[in-house]
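Structure in, sequence out. Go:
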């Protein structure tokens, strides 16, 4: 029915005169036959024009009629455009809800620094670490990092990654005089361009690196007190209900471990050689409860609860320990954010391999609070390589910063030739809300497919899943 049909003439007149009864009668018909509006835009425009005519003529009648006309204005328009276009995040969530998952679907949950930031964990991000480092160093009378701090402030260095990288390189350079002169000839074009100040001696740089490193380690040690938040707990719940989950994290804190312990779920750090039925917890940058002996390459992992109770008894967090094998000094095994991670801790390579395998074998990769920083460039490379080799992988990325999500999508589109938007699920906002919802969808659709498939082929779960499907008896390896 076109808009010049007498029916519409009646409607326009009713609006112009503010005739509520006629509007009600006419709108009854329209509500039940909205398809008669064959040109929704013209229809809306005419409604608005007639309503403004009434507003000019009589404000009281206009005010009385307006709500009815507003209702009328939503008719005839396809639902998508009538409502506001749902956001990218909402679209991603609704696509996730419909995602087909199977019992054999393999998941990788990758937690970055953003995952340990929400309360009650409240762990500072890399950007917040440098000011904390200065604050700690300033508390001491000798103020060992005074000069370094002044220099960083003047040079506007606010990033702990840059500082630690500079210290690592400097130390490597001063250890080898030949490399030092080569460095100078590469960096400076002429003799005049050379720095006027004398190069610091090896001991100074060594001690600067050492004290910065120690302060950083102490700073990390305070993370021992951090409690797991909703993100950690939901990760553990998902790991307990989904058949194949690997958890990878760049965080040093022990929040995930505490959440696992609370649910009595066994986990393995890969390098601890625990039984294979334990759930993989891949800690890319080490952990506050790991210690490494440089002499015999032995790795020690003291019990977190024992470390915590020692702290409650005012025993400070130990940066060093004694190797239980060769009695040499073992140092804290956390990989500081520098570009030279593997140089410092060779065994970390085995952990990285586990991450690569997880990416390669995972069907659904969920990334939470990870900013793809420069110093962790290699993680993004591994991830992109896995996806480009298996472009059907689904990638869910959750971050409060929409730039991170956009940047990652651009990287995907650039590196993955068969990249499809359908496989990409951007969730921009609080992980405590979005990530948790995404996990709920995935676990509930997995259990519903499991129910449908009951009586059919029995899938063998690698883990020792109890009758409730939730708890696994914990096996303490040491
Ligand atoms: Zn040793």
């Amino acid at each position: 029915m076109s808009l010049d049909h007498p029916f519409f003439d009646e409607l326009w007149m009713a609006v112009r005169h503010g005739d509520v009864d006629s509007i009600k009668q006419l709108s009854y018909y329209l509500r039940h036959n909205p398809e008669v509006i064959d040109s929704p835009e013209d229809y809306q425009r005419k409604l608005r024009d007639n309503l403004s005519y009434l507003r000019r003529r009589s404000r009281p009648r206009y005010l009385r009629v307006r709500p009815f006309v507003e209702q009328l204005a939503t008719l005839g328009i396809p639902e998508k455009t009538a409502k506001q276009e749902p956001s990218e995040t909402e679209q991603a969530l609704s696509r996730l809800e419909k995602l087909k998952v199977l019992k054999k679907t393999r998941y990788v949950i990758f937690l970055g620094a953003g995952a340990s930031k929400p309360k009650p964990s409240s762990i500072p991000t890399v950007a917040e670490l440098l000011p904390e480092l200065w604050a700690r160093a300033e508390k001491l009378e000798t103020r060992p990092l005074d000069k370094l701090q002044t220099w960083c402030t003047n040079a506007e260095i606010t990033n702990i990654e840059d500082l630690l990288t500079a210290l690592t390189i400097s130390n490597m350079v001063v250890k080898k005089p030949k490399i030092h002169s080569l460095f100078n000839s590469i960096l400076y074009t002429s003799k005049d361009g050379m720095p006027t100040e004398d190069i610091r001696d090896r001991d100074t740089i060594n001690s600067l690196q050492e004290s910065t490193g120690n302060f950083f380690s102490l700073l990390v040690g305070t993370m021992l007190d951090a409690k797991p938040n909703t993100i950690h707990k939901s990760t553990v719940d998902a790991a307990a209900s989904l058949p194949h989950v690997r958890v990878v994290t760049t965080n040093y804190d022990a929040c995930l471990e505490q959440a696992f312990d609370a649910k009595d779920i066994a986990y393995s750090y890969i390098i601890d050689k625990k039984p294979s039925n334990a759930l993989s917890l891949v800690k890319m940058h080490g952990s506050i409860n790991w210690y490494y002996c440089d002499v015999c390459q032995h790795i020690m992992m003291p019990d977190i609860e024992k470390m915590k109770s020692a702290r409650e008894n005012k025993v400070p967090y130990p940066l060093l320990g004694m190797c239980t094998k060769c009695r040499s000094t073992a140092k804290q095994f956390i990989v500081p954010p520098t570009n030279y991670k593997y140089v410092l801790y060779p065994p970390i390579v085995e952990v990285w391999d586990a991450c690569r395998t997880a990416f390669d074998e995972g069907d659904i990769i969920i990334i939470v609070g990870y900013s793809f920083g420069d110093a962790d460039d290699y993680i993004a490379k591994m991830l992109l390589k896995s996806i480009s080799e298996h472009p059907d992988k689904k990638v869910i990325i959750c971050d409060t910063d929409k730039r991170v999500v956009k940047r990652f999508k651009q990287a995907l589109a650039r590196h993955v030739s068969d990249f499809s938007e359908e496989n990409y699920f951007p969730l921009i906002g609080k992980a405590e809300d979005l990530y948790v919802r995404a996990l709920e969808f995935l676990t509930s659709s997995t259990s519903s497919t499991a129910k449908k498939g009951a009586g059919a082929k029995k899938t063998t779960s690698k883990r020792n899943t109890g009758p409730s499907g939730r708890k696994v008896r914990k096996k303490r390896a040491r």
